DNA sequence: AGAGTATAGTTAACCTTGTTAACAGTTAAT
DNA sequence: ATTAACTGTTAACAAGGTTAACTATACTCT
């Protein structure tokens, strides 16, 4: 099983490139998409929510959110704690989410074409386990 | 099987971070390691060899190779075509290859701990197939 | 043999996306 | 009431990719 990382990583650049081309049509990139995706699927969120979920430092999230605000895909809503900035998708944010989501799913299908179901299944399940192990090592 | 990309990508940052910490002990990073790895496993190579294997543009490879030369891990050897720059590992390059290779394999084992063999096997086989599909879409 | 074309590598300028450090404003704790 | 902790922002930086333009060398082909 030597070479696991190498095999894993060799997929990364072609994949992220394709995703960025796809999202680029809507002036998005995967890093922006991640924010949209999170807010859509977790409801109104603070920057810390997003930051800690993806393990990305706050300044990076600040930047992404600012861009999404400029693009009017995301807006701030009032909250009790006035330190926090709570954001949610705007209507056009929702729209673009649906569109991109569909396109990404389509791409997923194309990429998994002709690959046996059971293999994909197994791979699919492996990722969370690996991430678990990666995190555990962290705390050790 | 929706969410395949997301699951895949959620592993990337923790993994590459760990690798970069590991390699950082030897003043390397994964991008430099890729060059060392390629040259070790493919014998003396030109920058174009490396560039086209990883689908990374030449200037990026130029930069990496220059760094490795400064670190004396890689050296140029004479070739017939005087446009080409053919490089191979130096002795200390070989040494550091062996060391890092061992460390990476060790990390691989730790990360795959307690994950059923058959799942890993399947995942392992899936990566090349996915890359294939990604590339085919390219040419279409 | 010479003109034009193709290829290898380099340099410079730039972009994206991450990081740290320092700070302001707000809330919580003692 | 002070002090401590937390949220978000800004600024400066780093890694690692890109494109465009260039030099030097090799190849092609009448």
UniProtKB/TrEMBL annotation, chains A, B:
- Domain HTH marR-type, chain residue ranges per copy: 1-132
Give the record's keywords alphabetically.
Answer: DNA-binding, Transcription, Transcription regulation
Signal peptide range equals none
The GO terms this record gives for MF are:
DNA binding
InterPro entries recorded = HTH_MarR-typ (IPR000835), WH-like_DNA-bd_sf (IPR036388), WH_DNA-bd_sf (IPR036390)
- SMART domains linked: HTH_MARR
Specify the protein name: DNA-binding MarR family transcriptional regulator
Organism of origin is Peribacillus huizhouensis
Gene3D superfamilies (alphabetical): Winged helix-like DNA-binding domain superfamily/Winged helix DNA-binding domain
